[in-house]
Amino acid sequence: MSTYTYPYADTVAHLQSSDIRDLMKYAIRDDFVSFAGGMPNNHLFPVAEVEKIYHHLPQHVKELSFQYGPTTGYPPLVETLKKYMETKGISFDTHDLMVTTGSLQAIYIFTQLFVNPGDTILTENPSFIGALTLFKSFQADLIGIPMDKDGIIPEKLEEQYRQAVEQGKNVKFLYVIPNFHNPAGLIYNKERRRFILDFIKKHDLLLLEDDAYNELYLNENDKELTTPVLAMADNEVKNQIAYAGSFSKIMGPGFRLGWLIVPKGMFSHAEIIKQSLDACSPNLSQVIAHAFMDQGYMSKYLERIRPEYRLRRDLTLQAVKKYFPPEVKYVEPRGGFYIWFELPEGAEAKKVLDYALENGVVFVLGHSFDPDRKRQNTFRLAYSNVNPEDIDKAVKIIAEGIRKQLEKAK
Amino acid sequence: MSTYTYPYADTVAHLQSSDIRDLMKYAIRDDFVSFAGGMPNNHLFPVAEVEKIYHHLPQHVKELSFQYGPTTGYPPLVETLKKYMETKGISFDTHDLMVTTGSLQAIYIFTQLFVNPGDTILTENPSFIGALTLFKSFQADLIGIPMDKDGIIPEKLEEQYRQAVEQGKNVKFLYVIPNFHNPAGLIYNKERRRFILDFIKKHDLLLLEDDAYNELYLNENDKELTTPVLAMADNEVKNQIAYAGSFSKIMGPGFRLGWLIVPKGMFSHAEIIKQSLDACSPNLSQVIAHAFMDQGYMSKYLERIRPEYRLRRDLTLQAVKKYFPPEVKYVEPRGGFYIWFELPEGAEAKKVLDYALENGVVFVLGHSFDPDRKRQNTFRLAYSNVNPEDIDKAVKIIAEGIRKQLEKAK
To answer: How far apart are CA B163 and CA A365, in angstroms?
Structure first.
């Protein structure tokens, strides 16, 4: 029976293994200090607030939360999200918004709208593992563009795009994460954001802006740095831009809620796709999310968690400065969950991870975030879901692993 | 700006309108008596039970409910579902189970596993509108096989399959809803279930069994009629069968939870697809669903709602017998939510609906459930979400519409 060969579809036959599963395996173990999963902190979720909110909802709203809802989202939540996005400079004269089952589904819908097998997607290198896996499930060719501390490198993007066109590739869109990048931990400066707009205008390309970490600036002054690329676009280029948002970092991933903003001309097609994916997103989650935003809990919650993440970032950076050899490169993150490290060429991050695992610490290899799966000398630390008191000791262990590896590599 | 032409993917370019949206438009209006949506009753949801369950969960489980979980599901829920499915005769020696974001996602994952554009799927005619829309989004060719009161008609299935093969079509699987069929309201008898097994074995085809209504038998004696086709399969044919289950009818659609059971050989591919769709299903919903089943609430809830649905079915059938002209054909449902009506050839159900809408009653045209979108003389009444006191009057209005249409059609 085990020899039965299933007639898998072409899009599936090539799919092999699961980086994400391997990653999660350690991320959820209690006996490791985990810098692995890109997860909010278990102990910081607004559990009490949400229970209180739900308890006080009118009976008919509680009943609604058990029922099917419109494909594009629970209408009060859609309205609240639109108002919220307007405060970030996004206008719904040209665009419309639908609720999605996590921001990954938003990325999925956009990809299904535009990508045929063999089409090319431009991404950053490194980029979000979930999106890369998703793009590959559409049999897309990925071109990963290098970044520096300010975002994607303009010359590299132009050059690699030109090469792709020369090779006859059908480039469909550019996918970027301008705010508190996963995994690179950086934020795009204004010039790079403007460059992205110029680039897609010049080459008539679509842009998918993933803004899952928008609210996770760690200093109040940095808020102004987070203006979405879509909000900076002029009317002419706007209709080439879609935007994905997420509740995972501002309420909790367990609700599986995100949103997709697309130009009005794309909306009904996006709705049909969403319909065939899961009919509608969980109404229970949506009813709670609406009340959470509408009753002012979200902003209070964000004010409460920013210092917590700031503390973890600061402790991690302190320990890194104390223990890591000076050859290890990284950018100090201004927000989000991540610090991205680059070992000298030739050093193997995998060996560092092996050492860390032996000593009860886990993190993620950069390899998984590389669209080309080539680079062996990078890794990511997520400081979001560690206990502050574990940080110094755990970073010290990683540093030991790095020193051993650097000695060997000499 | 509105003239910008998006370079949609081939799978999307042909998608046109949205039957489901049109259907939902009326289903959620308070000022109509609605036989439209295939929805559980708003006032019968286990709202109080769920709030109590959640309140008493340990803090660390509440925290987990806000977090990401494994792609294949919250492990305690997966275990509970397996035990539950074992009571229905399904063995996990040969199969494995994952939690999905509604049973529609289970159907989506199975379809993505096997269907390339242009492949053929055999369905019943009529069939579930959500699945039909989904299959079309994969650019599948659909062949709808007629049913009688006992299920799909064997001779028709053999004949239409043979024709498809002669035409060089690549038939990938057969999709059936053996229990309390949506929209046909019928239940397959044992012979037809066995025939399905013989058919897929003989032709080496895959089977997708959609069992969303399994628990909604309305007489205790009928429970034995609901044994899944998968549970009746011998070891040889089992590995050609997948099964989709749903929490929508046993807890509430607002949780967006279902499950997919596939032969072990398909499981890791199915997991990768699920990963790219939404990473994991809502943990909040899963934690609640687990406690709901594990603490014995589900079986009590089902005992409470069966008489409620039985009452609505009985009142609807009584009114139909009283008011409908004898030319209208239907099968009395033994469970589920639906009664399927067939007007004499030439009569237009659309005109009956127009009359009903003018008079404050709404239902769904059979047209939407027809893979070929040809039949104009059928419609579906869902008695699940109507108030008992509205039924007699509403059915009378539909009957008036039918009489007017039959007079015209003469």
So the answer is: 53
Return the closest-CA partner of residue A168 out of A207, A123, A119.
A119
- Measured in whole angstroms, how far is the alpha carbon of residue B377 from the centre of its chain? 22
With H, G, I as helix, E, B as strand and everything else as coil, classify residue B241: strand
- CB-CB contact of A272 with B137 (8 Å): yes
Q: Do B278 and A55 touch (CB under 8 A)?
A: no
The angle, 0 to 180 degrees and rounded to 10, between the axes of the packed helices B297-323 and B47-55 is: 170
Tell me how far CA of residue B381 lies from CA of B33, B38, B185, B365, in angstroms: 11, 9, 10, 9
Burial (CB count <10 Å: 0-12, 13-18, 19+), residue A266 = buried
Cα B97 to Cα A38, A134, B261, B265, B405, distances in angstroms: 26, 22, 4, 12, 49
pTM above 0.90, yes or no: yes
Q: Does residue A105 sit at the B interface (CB-CB below 8 Å)? A: yes
> Tokens 């209180």, residue?
A52
Residue environment code for A345-364, b if the CB has 16+ CB neighbours within 10 A, otherwise e: eebbbebbbebbeebebbbb
**C-alpha–C-alpha distance, residues A135 and A115, integer Å:** 9
Give the closest residue to B180 by CA, choosing from B253, B250, B261, B107: B250
Are residues B27 and B41 in contact, defined by beta-carbon separation less than 8 angstroms? no
Q: What are the beta bridge partners of residue A55? A: none
Q: What CA–CA distance (Å, rounded) separates B183 from B181?
A: 6
Evaluate if residue A273 carries a pLDDT over 60. Answer: yes
Name residues 261-290 of chain A within 8 A of B (Cβ).
263-266, 268-269, 271-273, 275-285, 287
Q: Helix, strand or coil for residue B89?
A: coil
**Tokens representing B277?**
């769709």
Find, in chain A, the residue whose alpha carbon is nearest to that of B134.
A276
- Contact between chains at A279 and B255 (C-beta distance less than 8 A): no
User: Cβ of A296: how many Cβ atoms within 10 Å?
Assistant: 9
Any chain A CB within 8 A of the CB of B319?
no
Q: In B87-234, which residue ranges form alpha helices assigned H by DSSP?
A: 103-114, 129-137, 154-166, 190-203, 229-232
Shortest CA gap A105–chain B (Å): 5
Q: What span, in angstroms and rounded, lies between the C-alpha atoms of B166 and B183?
A: 30
Say what the ipTM of the complex is. Answer: 0.94
The tokens describing B315, both together, are 């009142």
pLDDT per position as a tens digit, B235-288: 999 999 999 999 999 999 999 999 999 999 999 999 999 999 999 999 999 999
How far is residue A363's CA from residue A23's CA, in Å, rounded to a whole number? 8
Q: Do residues A38 and A382 make contact, with C-beta atoms less than 8 angstroms apart?
A: yes
Task: Enter the tokens of residue B119.
Answer: 């492949």
Q: Using alpha carbons only, how large is chain B's radius of gyration in Å?
A: 21
Quick check: A1 pLDDT over 60?
A: no
Q: Which residues pair with A342 in a beta bridge?
A: A329, A378
**Residue entry with tokens 């909040």:** B284
* Alpha-carbon span A94 to A86, nearest angstrom: 12
Cα–Cα distance measured from residue B71 to residue A63, given in angstroms and rounded to the nearest whole number:
28
d(C-alpha B53, C-alpha B55), whole Å: 6
